[in-house]
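Hi,

Apologies if this is the wrong queue. I'm a grad student, and the batch job for HhH-GPD domain-containing protein from Cucumis sativus produced an output file that my downstream script rejects. I'm not sure whether the problem is my script or the file. Here is the sequence I used:
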Amino acid sequence: MAKRIRRKCLFQLESPSDAVPLSPSASSKIPFPSTKVRKISSNQEPTKPQISAPGGYNPTRIFPNLADPVKSLSSSDKISTAINHLRRSDPLLISLLDSCETPNFKSNPPFLALTKSILYQQLATKAAEAIYNRFASLCGGEAAVLPDTVLGLSPQQLRVIGVSGRKASYLHDLATKFIEGSLSNSFILEMDDETLLRALTAVKGIGVWSVHMFMIFTLHRPDVLPVGDLGVRKGVQRLYGLKELPKPAEMEKLCEKWKPYRSIGAWYMWRLIDAKEIVKNGCD
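Support response: The file is valid. Your script probably expects a header line. Output copied below for reference.
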């Protein structure tokens, strides 16, 4: 039963085009990358990145709302800080925190991760993996999954390896936005959550749920609450003994105490679905 519930969690959709292959359980096997922070002297103003690209974009345009990289869940110390905060702020989590392994997330370059999320939409894991492996081979390997390469693949070439015409259009739209400069790996890493949500949902085939999963499992953003994820909603329902699944507004209210580490709280809700018998108090 837990496996069936978990599958609903991983591929729960907001719309027919919105899913992502970022498995909460699988994410615990891969370590974090390091995050570098550039030091700025007291007399030097920080420089924001500028867009310099073809396609009608202003090369002097300043990109707004940069995220603070220090806030990324990029080390075991930061994870420990988050867990200690949850332990203090929500006693109902204590049994779960003590019984489960410590979170650890996978990292891929943003373009690769987003490409993979599109390819995995609405597919069973094995089928999605097979198509993704053929796609990567068609590109010349994962290291060659780049905007220029993807845009150079015709819909016919993609169809041969099992990619639908609709997904091919999504991949091309994503690649085009990278080539034109409205998106880039560096901009994605530096945008704050709100700006990133707007930028990525402008890509065909990427919706709010997909962006939330991307923020948590690829960018390791600490305070993302995926209020539309079925697994997280079921976890919150069990944790607080609710009769019905909480709606987004209720989720926000109940999980307010988890701030600024709601991503970790959500991660433990997936664990609660996997092993609901661990937490008895307030779950049934």
